[in-house]
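Entry 14. Structure prediction run on the chain below.
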Amino acid sequence: MKKLSLLTAGLLLLATAPALAGGSGSDARVRVVHASPDAPAVDVLVDGQRALTDISFRDVTSYARLRAGQYGVEVVPAGLDAPVVIDLTGQNAPNLFYNRDYTVVAVGRLHDLEPLLLVDDNRPLPPTKARVRFVHASPDAPAVDIAVRNGPVLFANVSFKGVGDFVEVPADTYDLEVRPAGSLNAVLTVPAVVLMSGTTYTIYATGLLGDGTLAPVVSVDSISPASRRMGAGR
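Output returned:
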C-alpha cells in the first residue's frame, strides 16, 4: 500500500474546514490532477466503479459530483483493474463533506506515488479580483518562490508536495517567475498569465527540473456567476 500520510493529514483538516461553495445540497465535488511525470494514464475507481477515465500526465479533470459520505478510491492504469497505484479503501477511505470541493493530486514518481488531498475554495469573488494558489508537484525541484516579474513574491518557500494557499489579486495579466527559495534567479518563466475577474485558479509546477520538462499547468477552478455572465474565463 502506498504512503498515506499526506492524505491522513488532509483528512484531519477537513473536520474543521469551513463549507465552501461548489457542491450543492448533500453533494461534494471531486477532481483529479495527474502530476506524476513517469506514471501512465490512469483511471479512478470509486467504490469499485470507474468514475474518471484515461487521465494522462498534466491532465486536470472536471469535478465529479458525489453525495457526501465515505468512499473507497483506487487509482489504476487506464483500462486495467491492477495494479492499484493509489489505494484509499477501508480505514483510509476519504470522507467527503457536503458542499465542499476537493482536488486529489497524484504526485511523485511511479515508484512512490502519493495522493495529495486539497480542499478547494470556489466561493464567489469580488468583480475586480482573481484568486490563485500554487502547488509544487515537481519531485526533483527544490523549494521555490513564485513571484511577479519585477514585483512581489506571491508564494514563498514552497517545497515539493507543498501548497501556497489561495491569495486574492487584482484581475490582470502577470509575468510570473519560479525561483529557488530566497533567490532572484528564475528557473522557469511563465509569461502572460491571464487572471480574470471573478475566477479562481491553481498553478501546478509539474515535470522534472533535471531533464528540462519542468512546466506549469494553470487550471481554472471556478468562475463566479456574475463573471460567467460577462464572459470571464472564456
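The CA atoms of residues 112 and 200 lie 30 Å apart.
Filed with the rest of this week's runs.
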